[in-house]
Hints:
mainly beta; 4-stranded antiparallel sheet
Amino acid sequence: QVQLVESGGGLVQAGGSLRLSCAASGRSFASYSMGWFRQAPGAEREYIGKIWSSGTTAYTDSMKGRFTISRDNAKNTVYLQMNSLKPEDTAVYYCAAQKPMGSQYEYWGQGTQVTVSS
């Protein structure tokens, strides 16, 4: 069982930056792939990107260049650095964990709200 807790959300002006953190419980964190997602009001959940246990990352095209995912396995934490924020980035941001060789994200955090003002 893995528990995930996101933090770092808040209110920021357009053009600003935020770094979200996702702290994980459990001893197997380093072997998990970790994903970031977001959901705006009235919209479906949107995939942002992923970091594998190796540290390799991948992003959906619209997020490339502004968002960066990293991880610190010693701290059982994954990060989402968000730069040049826009009002349309306003959403609840979630992290999720995927087991090695797994096909789905099995564990989800509760989410953290990010609001970008114009």
